[in-house]
Amino acid sequence: MISYCGEIHQKDHWKFHKDICKVISDIMKERGVSHLYENLCIIDPKKWKAKREETRQTVESRMSRPTILEEVEMFRYPRACFVCHEAKQENLRNCPGCSLASFCRDHPSSYLHDKNCATIKKSHEFETEIDPRSGLITKVVSKIVANTPTKIPRSIREFIDSSFKWNESLPACMQFYLAEYLTIPLSIFNAFEKLKNPSKTEESPSKMVVHLRGINRRYVFTNSWEALLHMMPNLNNLLVVITDQSDDMRMEATLCSKCTSKKKKLLMEGVGVHYLEYLKADSYR
């Protein structure tokens, strides 16, 4: 059900994975299979989706906690045949084109996948080649105009065109990538703008805590959140908490010189529990 790049990371993650691993192992022993989805061979998409959810709920009912995001995705996107969803691993091979789909011996290919394979491969290569640590986000955020436009942008593209001072054009592919990282903070800013523009008044908060549930960490732990510090002048302290993670972590972002001189802070926390549990925890903020 789950793979690791090596023994070191497997051991590091064991404290978070061991409870669900035991439950899954017990169920497989009871069923006499080597994989939870083995021998199902459900071709109908709706039935396959229902079976995955039923399996997740069965596992969750045997644990003392809800399944977190990464575990939910483990049940939703198992390595199984693209056509019949057979999950016996020794009978599967990865697509030689994109490596992101698998096929069994009885179904070596699929027209539905073949027509999209090149696009999937290109998207995957783009994701792996462009790293958020490359400095793109920091560069973009530093170029945000402090005084936001009077007209609320209707899209990410309009925001980029109206709120950034570019000396050179931004490639379309970079705009797509940038949108993934700016969508959540810009949505929050847009909500404030619609509330009679409190970001431009004394009513604008000096401190803010944002709770996010089930969001991929890669889209949260970036300096894209610094955009709020730029666009909301009164905001000095911003804490972003994301629950349903595989582990706990906390980091303070390195801000631009302007924010640093004003002693602004941007903190990001990953919480390894379900959001409902976090609401009851002593660490709730």
The amount of beta strand, in percent, is 5-15%
**Uncertain stretches:** 145-149
Specify the number of helices.
10
Number of domains: 2
Q: Taking all residues together, what is the mean pLDDT?
A: 81
Number of DSSP-assigned strands: 6
How far do the termini sit from each other?
34 Å
Shape: globular
Q: Sheet bearing the most strands, described? A: 4 strands, mixed
Radius of gyration: 23 Å
Helix proportion range:
40-55%
Model description:
This protein has helices at about 5-30, 45-60, 70-75, 110-130, 135-140, 155-165, 170-195, 225-230, 255-260, 275-280, and strands spanning about 95, 100-105, 205-215, 235-245, 250, 265-270. With about 280 residues, it is α/β, with parallel strands linked by helices. The protein has 2 domains: about 5-130, no CATH class; about 130-280, no CATH class. A hairpin with a 7-residue loop joins strand 1 and strand 2.
Task: Record keyword descriptors for this entry.
10 helices; 6 strands; alpha/beta; 285 residues
Write the layout of secondary structure elements.
Elements: H1 7-31, H2 45-62, H3 69-76, E1 93-94, E2 102-103, H4 111-129, H5 136-141, H6 156-163, H7 172-194, E3 207-213, H8 226-231, E4 237-243, E5 249-252, H9 257-261, E6 265-270, H10 275-280
Parallel strand pairs: 3-4, 4-6
Antiparallel strand pairs: 1-2, 5-6
